[in-house]
Specification:
Helix content is 27%, strand content 20%. By secondary structure, it is an alpha+beta fold.
């Protein structure tokens, strides 16, 4: 693009691709989208099982780590984040959930109630066309026997239910926001996509966000506005380097504060997750002599038909239920993986089995993100605050106990395997508690660092700016009850709407 764009979108992830695509569709002007990582043109991105190798990639995963988590005995947690076109939506498991209706009503923000967002999800789904996973392993399909009221449809966070989840997959291939929104918009000739360009900060002229400054010093100007869509870790870091944050902290790092906005980076939270491992012959997929031919043929089968174990996004289904069984309203989600996973940290483990976790739908704990230095190459300090609120640990303990009961009563038929870990070593409440502290991780759904109501307006405009919007998972005041990709895309769609409406006014 030789002419100055009207809008610059920073970050071509789940939300950013939707913002760019929808600005183009609304004919809002010329758009430039800047992505730090490479393209998503890689066979492991398209093949669902490929995420096993993409996570930890030096090129396509930011590979962040948390600070030592006091709630987890000082352990640090891995925080994978996609670094390519499609963002985390290019390395995720493609599980598709809008969230519970109550989640949005509870945000208590004008324009963000369920009645406001429901039609937007409908519109996003016209492009993503999520469907229930076909070809799920038989043991996953039998999850639907967990609740007698089950309809066979994908489960819902609005009521107790279990089964095969919905996915944004097409013909066995990942169908991300880059596929559904970015590439179609490129045909217009009004969208330029820059990959391999990392953004340092945003520069202003008066109150107007005027230029994006890349880490190599290149300056890119926007006529009308800038949209920050670098995700829950990237967006607050860029905002802080641009002078939005706790003024005293910024000054200490040598950054000139533009707007004293202490809530930037605060309210960071994620779904804590703790798993049970099952192992036994004839249960799930695994590395065994008997399955060696199937594994050997798997690439050929996938290439020829888009089916088979390499078409599995690993998580194939799961459940929503109330941890204590005292209400019909779910407060935990379980993800079910019909593969034998190791619990010792090794990537490959011999044997067959399956895995199910317990994941809090609405964690109360909160952490915070801050910068360690003004250097854009330095990773921020990411305190996820896991299990800071004692009630989170209590609900996880109850959730593990109820998950065991629910799995016991499910009709897994010949595929049933006994619990192999933690099994007998974590039966009492105290032992389960210790197991959680030792092993709890997250579902990779960090949100909340640029929340609507504290950091951005209901129209997603950053406080203290005229023409700088934030559109990604960071604006969620509290995490939705299930996986966060669909809500992130819904947020991107709404941002394009708000920006376009303002331009037209
Ligand atoms: C391993 C994994 C599995 C997951 N599984 C699921 C799932 O199955 N279902 C689900 O619903 N959710 C899942 N999630 C979560 C979901 O993918 C995210 O919530 C969602 O993608 C967040 O979208 P976003 O737009 O906020 O951020 P992202 O999609 O992460 O996009 C941010 C983009 O900004 C870019 N960026 C960051 N900093 C800069 C910079 N300085 N300069 C330029 N570009 C920058 C990044 O490279 C990235 O492309 C998973 C996440 C992970 C990591």
């Amino acid at each position: 693009m030789t002419v100055t764009p009207d809008y610059i979108v920073i970050g071509a992830g789940s939300a950013g691709c939707v913002v760019a695509g929808e600005l183009i569709r609304r004919q809002a002007g010329r758009v430039l989208i800047i992505e730090a990582g490479p393209t998503d043109a890689h066979p492991l991105v398209k093949m669902p099982f490929g995420l096993v190798w993409l996570m930890g990639s030096k090129i396509r995963d930011w590979r962040f780590s948390s600070t030592a988590q006091s709630g987890l005995g000082g352990r640090a947690l891995k925080i994978p984040r996609g670094r390519m076109l499609g963002g985390s939506g290019s390395i995720n498991s493609m599980v598709w959930f809008r969230g519970a209706r109550r989640d949005f009503d509870d945000w208590g923000q004008p324009k963000w109630a369920w009645s406001n967002v429901d039609p937007v999800f409908d519109a996003v789904e016209q492009h993503l066309r999520p469907t229930q996973l076909s070809g799920a392993h038989p043991v996953t399909r039998r999850l639907s026997t967990m609740f007698s009221t089950n309809s066979g449809a994908a489960p819902s966070p609005d009521y107790e239910s279990a089964g095969v989840f919905n996915y944004n997959l097409h013909k066995g291939r990942r169908w991300s926001a880059a596929d559904a929104f970015l590439r179609p918009a490129q045909a217009s000739g009004h969208l330029q996509v820059l990959t391999g360009c990392s953004v340092d900060r945003i520069a202003f002229q008066g109150d107007r966000a005027d230029r994006v400054i890349l880490t190599d010093g290149t300056q890119l100007r926007a006529h009308k506005g800038i949209i920050l869509s670098a995700g829950s870790i990237g967006s607050p870091a860029i905002a802080m380097r641009s002078g939005f944050g706790d003024a005293s902290q910024l000054r200490a790092l040598g950054i000139d504060p533009r707007h004293d906005l202490a809530d930037v980076g605060r309210n960071l939270h994620d779904h804590p997750s703790v798993g049970l491992y099952f192992s036994g012959p004839n249960s799930g997929y695994g590395l065994t002599l008997g399955q060696s031919l199937a594994w050997a043929m798997a690439p050929l089968r996938y290439a020829a038909t888009g089916t088979g174990r390499l078409a599995s996004p690993t998580v194939e289904g799961g459940a929503f239920f109330n941890a204590r069984g005292t209400s019909a309203e779910p407060d935990v989600q379980s993800h079910f993986i019909p593969f034998k996973l190791g619990w010792t940290g090794a990537r490959y483990t011999y044997g067959q089995g399956y895995f199910a976790d317990v994941c809090l739908c609405r964690p109360k704990s909160r952490g915070a993100l801050r910068l360690e230095s003004a250097d854009p190459q330095a990773a921020p300090l990411i305190d996820l605050g896991i299990l800071q609120d004692p009630s989170d640990l209590d609900t996880l303990v109850a959730g593990i106990k109820r998950l065991r009961q629910l799995l016991d009563r499910s009709d897994f038929g010949p595929y049933r395997a006994p619990e192999a870990h933690p099994a007998a070593s974590a039966q009492t409440d105290d032992a389960i508690r210790r197991y959680i502290v030792q092993t709890c991780a997250t579902a990779y759904h960090p949100v909340g660092t640029m929340a609507i109501g504290t950091v951005v307006s209901p129209e997603l405009k950053l406080t203290g700016s005229n023409n700088l919007w934030v559109a990604d998972a960071s604006v969620m005041p509290s995490v939705t009850s299930a996986n966060t990709n669909a809500p992130s895309m819904m947020i991107g769609w709404r941002a394009a709407d708000f920006i376009n409406q303002e331009a037209a006014a």
